[in-house]
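input
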Amino acid sequence: MALLRAIIHIKVPVHYLNMGKKVAIVLSGCGVYDGSEIHESSAVLVHLSREGAQFYAPDVEQMHVVDHVKGQPTQEKRNVLVESARIARGNIKDLATLNVKELDALIIPGGFGVAKNLSTWATQGKNCTISKVVEETLKAFHAAKKPIGMCCISPVLAAKIFPGCELTVGQDKECEKWPYAKTAEAMKELGCKHVNKHVDEIHVDVKNKLVTTSAFMCNASVHEVYDGIGKMIKEVLKLA
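output
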């Protein structure tokens, strides 16, 4: 039992403090339906493993908890920071403590947690509000002219905060391969320029230092999403 307790309390490092860039990764929980998309989050970390990555998440209650087998909400209550720690292997900080001066770039993976826990996009669409700490974080990186990488649904945060910016969530015509294409239309209505891209492509808004890729907004294979995220990370590091 003593050994088990010791193992439980070990925080396994998930970032490698080399001489590379220091990148903040903001999570929104753990699991595609109510938190961060796990494959996207892992892809981000793998592509950043030779740099200096640090996970953050807001210390707030989730909008709700979804049974990922049944795809239905449950009566459970869970905390976004605590759930995000599962992906970060325990090495995570409260987003409220983030200091933009100590970091070179920001990455926000997708997952419905972005639309449910970082904002109210899931229930209000383009009329949503964004979590105060999330909005302040995005504005701080933007004001400091430090690059921001966003994949899957997370570009909607930039669409809401930075009108006129250029973004992609993939394609703007709904079909079996692109089931969430209406998101692009909502972003256009917010005054943004949406650029159609394939899942393994990225779009770079040089003026605003925003790098976006569609990830699982497309009904794609994991390796295709991984490749697109890799290109996003490479460009973010180039801009940092």
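quick obs: The chain is about 35% helix and 15% strand.
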